[in-house]
Design a protein that fits this description.
- It contains 2 helices and 6 strands.
- By secondary structure, it is of the alpha+beta class.
- It has a domain of about 100 residues.
- Strands 1-2-3-4-5-6 form a 6-stranded antiparallel beta sheet, covered by helices on one side.
- About 10% of the residues are buried.
Length: about 200
């Protein structure tokens, strides 16, 4: 009986030691899990911050690209606006240019054949020969022609100046000696219908 009473305390001590060991193992395991959980949480937080930073960086790049795109569009629009006046100016210069002597001769004939113009009474068309015209000079918007008399002696000058795309001035010099100081008269003509808008007599 005493033998068994001696064994019981030993069993209890062994059992308590085993329980304490199990408890210590469970605490260690719990600490490891907690530490792992904290590391995982820290890693997740760090990953979220990196993702957020990367997202902000990408957003900043997109915003910068958008600003550059808007600037490029603005520059293109500005260049187009600057180019427009230049294009219009070039077109006007082309409209004010005499392409040839034949263009000026045809214009003169239509003005003097328009019976609404007083100057239509000045020409005897039966004595008119287009071959008597010759080119003296052409300065773009102004062209000067010489008319030779049929007899070959003497002649006259006619100067054509495109004032605007809608109006042309004709200055007549009766006699070779009258050019360029003594014009006989000038006509302001409407290009669309060859109508004389204004006559200025130099005498």
């Amino acid at each position: 009986m005493k033998k068994y009473l001696f064994i019981i305390p030993i069993v209890l001590l062994v059992g308590l030691s085993a329980c304490e060991k199990i408890s210590n193992d469970e605490r260690k395991k719990s600490n490891v899990q907690e530490k792992t959980s904290k590391q995982s949480s820290t890693s997740s937080s760090s990953s979220q911050e990196e993702s957020k930073a990367k997202k902000n960086e990408n957003s900043s790049e997109v915003s910068q690209e958008h600003q550059e795109s808007v600037k490029d569009s603005s520059d293109i629009s500005k260049n187009q606006q600057e180019a427009t006046p230049s294009s219009e100016s070039s077109q006007n210069q082309q409209e004010l240019k005499w392409e040839s002597m034949d263009e000026a001769i045809l214009f003169w004939e239509k003005v003097y054949k328009n019976t609404q113009n007083e100057v239509s009474k000045k020409i005897e068309w039966k004595n008119y020969n287009v071959k008597n015209w010759s080119l003296t000079e052409n300065n773009g918007s102004t062209i000067l022609l010489h008319w030779s008399n049929e007899s070959g002696a003497g002649g006259s000058y006619t100067k054509f100046t495109k004032k605007t795309p809608n109006e042309t001035q004709i200055v007549e010099y009766d006699g070779n000696a009258s050019y360029p100081q003594m014009p006989s008269y000038s006509l302001l003509v409407q290009n669309s219908n060859y109508l004389v808008l204004e006559t200025m007599d130099a005498h």
